[in-house]
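thread: overnight batch results

M.L. [08:02]
morning all. the overnight job finished for the chain we discussed friday. pasting input first so we're all looking at the same thing
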Amino acid sequence: MLQKYDPRNEHIKVYVNGEIVHRNEAKVSVFDSVVQGGDAVWEGLRLYKQGILHLSAHLNRLRESAHAMAFTQIPTNEEIRSAIKQTLDANGMTDETHLRLTLTRGEKVTSGMDPRLNQKGTCLIVLAEWKPLVYDNESGIKVITSAIRRNGPQFVDSKIHHNNLINNILAKIQANHAGADAAIMLDDRGFVAELNDTNVFIIKDHILYTPFADACLPGISRGMVMDVAGKNSFYMREKNLSLVDFYNADFAFATGTMGQLTPIVEADGRKIGNQEGRDYFNKIVKAYEAVIPYACEKL
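M.L. [08:03]
and the structure it wrote out:
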C-alpha cells in the first residue's frame, strides 16, 4: 500500500551522530559509507503505549549485523537506547510511531571501497515518525512473483540486515508496474523466500508453514508468530514452499514490524484462501495481538 505523508512529521527532530536536529538539518557527509556504497545496517522499530516491541532483539540484531560487517566502534545497546529516548522525548512521541535506526560505517577520509578509509567511527541515525500500520490488514494485499531472486548466503547473507536493498527495490518496482502491493521473491532454487519487505506464512490443513530462513531474513515478527504458534497449540513447520503450495494455501499472510499480520489474498492472479483458513488466521492474530503488550520494552 502507498504510505501517506503525515503532517505531524513536518517538524520532527532526528538524532544524527550525537545531535538532535530538525529533519531539514539532518545530514551525513557525502564521504559517509552509506552514501558511497550503501555500507550500513538498520532496524525498523515500532513504539506502542507499552514500549518498543522486541527492542532488545532488534538492538542485538543491529549490533550483530554491524559485527558481521566488521564495523569498528559499534555503539552499545545502552548508548542506542539513550539515542532512541532522546529522539522520542524531543518529538513528544509515546505511541503509533515507527523508528528507523541506521548505523553507517562512518565517514571516509577519501572516496573508496576500502573500510580502512573509515577512520572516524560509525554514525548512528535515529529517525522517528508518526505512522500507522502500513498495510490494510482487513482487506489484505495482492502480490506478484518477481523475477528478482532473494540473495542466498553464498552471495550476501540475509542475516546481515544491511542497507543495500537494490534487489528488494527492483522487486517492488515490478510489483508497482503490475498493479500489485508487493512482490514474492524466490530463492536460487525457485522456492518462496519472502516478500520484498516482509516474511510470509501459509496455512494448509490447520498447519502453519513458513520458508526456511536460508534466503530470507529470519524476521523478529516471524519469530514472534512462530513462538505464539508453539504456545497456543498451532502446529508449525518450516518448509521449502513452492509457488504451487502458495497458490493452493487455505490462507497466506505476511509478517513485519510495520504491518503486523497482513493477509495475502491474491498471488499472480490466483485468489488465495478460504473461510476455514481465514478463521484459523483470525485465531493466530488474536493470540499475536495478546502478546504485544508483554513483548514491549520501556526505555
